[in-house]
Specification:
The protein is an alpha/beta fold. It is built from ten helices and 14 strands.
Length: 338
């Protein structure tokens, strides 16, 4: 979808990259406690007054689409299904002209009862996090016995027509690093598309260790030991995943998001809005720009757009994970939004 905004109005950084993909975090809360994301006891949640209201979220999405050229909006968290106003927010975004593509990243718990309503509100597709096909491993990884709920959510999304239904999987060394082929078999059997994501330095515990991370190269080697992966003729564009067609898979794709070992920063087209109204130019940024304060102080849409453009203009060339001076963001993934 091409943006109708003038070139000078778009979210352009100093390297000429144009942000057209908006990731909106709706909450920092989550009903799982995945070991690579947060400690077993959870985290201090943002106070309710700090969170953007539904009306504020809708207004900022409207500014992004109408004035800044955003063409894709993805709702994230935390767990976005915990946001009571999610269907209304989706419906308001779907009513915008030009209409953005709308997607959701979720852990799938609660999706079985909400998939149809979200589709009716205007949601186009969904990504569901699932790191294992084994219920006991799921409980160990997430500290919750909700594996069956995630499977039910995936099936409900498929039946509701939120296609393609994509699965996001993170492999952890010594935990589930043997499951790449099993996860792909499960995805193919259920007509889901699978994306493996390298574990990133975004855990609340700051315990990430590159030496223990399962790399994209290792994941692909494990897949190719059992499957034939064919080049994907579709252009990658700014998509984070490298994708392949699975031979005999009825056109289904498998992808790997190698954020650490195969960075795609040069083609990044994303801008991020946190649940408390901060603009982040990069997932790994250590700086944020406040829109909530300006919005609540009475700023008009032009002023909000100006501040957003200024926040994105200084985006760095890359995330710098390989740089000795790299500092992990103070906010964990659950508070940033994927």
């Amino acid at each position: 979808m091409n943006s109708p905004v003038a070139a000078g109005s778009a979210l352009v950084d100093r390297f000429g990259r144009v942000a057209t993909d908006l990731r909106v975090s709706l909450t920092d809360r989550c009903n799982l406690r995945c070991s690579y994301c947060m400690p077993a006891e959870g985290l201090p949640w943002l106070p309710a007054p700090h969170l953007l209201t539904d009306a504020e979220v809708i207004r900022l999405i409207t500014v992004a689409v109408r004035q800044l050229g955003v063409t894709e909006v993805r709702f994230t968290g935390g767990e976005p299904l915990l946001r009571p106003g999610l269907p209304a927010i989706v419906a308001a975004a779907a009513a915008l002209r030009p209409r953005p593509t709308l997607s959701l990243t979720t852990n799938g718990i609660g999706l079985a009862r909400t998939a149809t309503a979200l589709r009716d509100a205007g949601l186009d597709r969904v990504n569901v996090s699932l790191d294992t096909v084994d219920a006991d491993r799921f409980a160990a990884l997430t500290r919750r016995r909700r594996h069956h709920d995630v499977l039910a959510g995936l099936a409900a999304a498929r039946e509701a027509g939120l296609r393609p239904v994509k699965i996001n999987s993170v492999l952890l060394r010594g935990v589930n690093d043997d499951e790449a082929p099993a996860l792909l078999r499960f995805a193919l059997a259920n007509s889901y598309e699978l994306r493996f994501i390298e574990q990133m330095p975004l855990d609340a515990q700051h315990g990430w260790d590159r030496a223990r991370m399962v790399t994209a190269t290792e994941i692909l080697a494990a897949l190719r030991a059992e499957f034939t992966l064919l080049p994907d003729p579709a252009p990658r564009g700014g998509a984070p995943a490298e994708t392949w067609l699975v031979a005999g898979g009825d056109g289904l794709r498998v992808g790997v998001i190698g954020s650490v070992t195969r960075p795609f920063c040069g083609d990044c087209d994303r801008t991020r809005l946190t649940a408390d109204g901060q603009v982040r130019a990069c997932l790994f940024a250590t700086e944020e720009s406040d829109l909530r304060g300006a919005l609540r102080a009475g700023a008009d849409d032009e002023e909000l757009a100006r501040r957003w453009r200024a926040a994105m203009a200084g985006k760095r060339a890359g995330h710098g994970i390989d740089d000795p001076s790299f500092l992990q963001p103070s906010r964990p993934m659950s508070a940033i939004g994927g």
